[in-house]
Structure formats: structure tokens, C-alpha cells
Amino acid sequence: MMAHQARKRFGQHFLTDEGVIESIVRGIAPRPGDEMVEIGPGLSALTAPLLRLLDHLTVVEIDRDLAQRLRRQYPPEKLTVVEGDALDVDFSSLGGNLRIVGNLPYNISSPLLFHLMRHAGRVVDQHFMLQREVIDRMVAKPSTADYGRLSVMLQSRYRMTKLFDVAPEAFDPPPRVVSAVVRMVPLPADRRRPKSEQAFETVVARAFAQRRKMLRRGLSDWAESIPWAGLGIPETARAEELSVERFMDLSDALVDAGVLRDG
């Protein structure tokens, strides 16, 4: 079979280190009957060991040549190939207790994580390899340099754990960054939720758009409608100091005041 040339436009870096592959599979701990979906299977570095442990696997692959290669390599009763961009895939249509895994293309990692949030109600867990810098932001705590919009939005929906780092030498071609593996488990149905998801997203985005400013200035359009003292938010507070719950309090207050729509 001809060697596949990594395509820059798809952000392809193929995992080749057997030790790293074993560590990822061990972290995922696949069971035969799992409804598992792999994003970006590439040259089957994860696909092959996963299929040894699963009854069936669904993969999402944007590269037409790689999709064809996968169809030739594995019988359809073992592997379903969804050819297309993961950003366009309706993951909820792929099953009800999904376990999603993948070495995600770093150039679309944040948009893809937000896309997957819409389907979190049908997901058991997610294990992804990403740029370490992105994972550090995902799991960051308030009042740290890495804490930002990505931290707040994803922590409102998932419990996340960084598992381990992966050196550039584990890939061909090697990326210019260190990678890491993260476990994401959706929070339960009885989790704290904002009154309006849309209002929550709007407040978080606006707050971190000017993260160096005090919140009262960053949210100046709405400042008079926010009961700052009642919410326990100091006058000098900046966005990075607020917990996920406090951001929900903020957006709920603006919905209650009729400033942001409940929708």
C-alpha cells in the first residue's frame, strides 16, 4: 500500500509511537460492546488496537484517500467510515451512549470541542489528544493565566482530567508543539445549569474579550443591571477570578433583569 503524505490543510500529524498508543488505549479502556466513534483515524494508529478490543467502531475521516484506505483495510461489519468534516457531523445520530476518541487536528480543536458540546447528552466520555496548551486551558482553575473562555464553557458541561503529555517525536511529521491527552466526562443531568445557555455564552465571551479590564468595565453595557454585591463579586474583580458558577449567577441575573433573552 502506497505511503500517505501528511496533508497540511487537514492538520495531519500521524501518531507512530507504540508506547504512547498503548497508553492511550489503556486510558480509554474499550469494552467489546462500546458505541465508540474515532475522529481522524488517519493511518489506523489507534483504530487497529481499538478494533482488537471492540465489536465495532465508527470513524470520521475528512481525507478521501484515507477513508478509501480504511474501507479496504477493514470489513464493514467491523468498521463504519463516515467520510466528511467532523465539524459537520451530527454525532447524536451515531448512537446513544457514545464514547468519542481521537487525535484531533489542532487547527480546528476549539471549534470541534464546542461542536461536540451540543451532543454531550448522548456521550459517555471523550478521550482526545490535543495541543498541551489547549488542554492546560481546558482544565485551568480560576485566577490562573490559562483560565479563560474555553475553561469556563467546557467546565460548565464536563469534568475533565489531563492524563499525560506526548512529545513531538511520537508523530510523523512531528508537530512544533507538545501534545497531551485529556479525558472529558459529561456532567450529569442534575448539574447546575444557567437559565439561558445563550445568555451564559454571551456573558462569558464578553467578559474574556477584555480580560485585563475589571468586569464592571468589560460588561459596562449591563453593569447597572447586575446586583454585584448580592452576587458577591468585588468591584475590582476581573473575568479570570470568577468560577463557572459565578458566571452562571451573572448571566442568570441579566436574564432576570430582562437585559438578556432567556433562550
Automatic annotation (TrEMBL):
Keyword rRNA processing attributed: yes
MF term (GO), any: 16S rRNA (adenine(1518)-N(6)/adenine(1519)-N(6))-dimethyltransferase activity
One annotated Gene Ontology cellular component of this protein: cytosol
SMART domains, per the entry: rADc
PANTHER family: DIMETHYLADENOSINE TRANSFERASE, DIMETHYLADENOSINE TRANSFERASE-RELATED
Primary role: Specifically dimethylates two adjacent adenosines (A1518 and A1519) in the loop of a conserved hairpin near the 3'-end of 16S rRNA in the 30S particle. May play a critical role in biogenesis of 30S subunits.
Name of the protein in its database record: Ribosomal RNA small subunit methyltransferase A
This protein's encoding gene: rsmA
